[in-house]
Amino acid sequence: xxxxxxxxxxxxxxxxxxxxxxxxxxxxxxxxxxxxxxxxxxxxxxxxxxxxxxxxxxxxxxxxxxxxxxxxxxxxxxxxxxxxxxxxxxxxxxxxxxxxxxxxxxxxxxxxxxxxxxxxxxxxxxxxxxxxxxxxxxxxxxxxxxxxxxxxxxxxxxxxxxxxxxxxxxxxxxxxxxxxxxxxxxxxxxxxxxxxxxxxxxxxxxx
Length: 207
Prior knowledge:
By secondary structure, the chain is of the alpha/beta class. It contains eight helices and eight strands.
């Protein structure tokens, strides 16, 4: 992935969650905002130092058409907070010995992410609703190298390419490496037409 001034749109929310979970920063006792900001800068500087031109696209403020998905996420958040109530009587030592994967990421971490992106002068956009289709369209319009995200929708959306966050790593030579998925290759491998990919994904419960 060593490129020269190559455009690379990022799915904002997906990257925010990916980075906070990857860094394993505290979620129970409030967000570790300074540490999170440092990790964000380290991550983006890997791309900026390799001459990638990043663009962050955040979800919009209007509700998604996927109403049932939104309701499911809200129910999970309520259950998570119920589990968090059980920690109120714990000492810090007891808390540190527990696994709190169910605990939601503090909301202000999202503001920390946005402020850090703006501090780095990385362009940031916000769509009206969900950002995935907008990112795919924007990537084609910009002639981008690929889209960076963890959203499996990008396997079937018509965009220049898709790189999953989990596949990105730095080798000893200092270059960034990642696994690139291209729709043409997926279509050739599966022996299905492009227009059938969304139907195939739904039937396999993939997206």
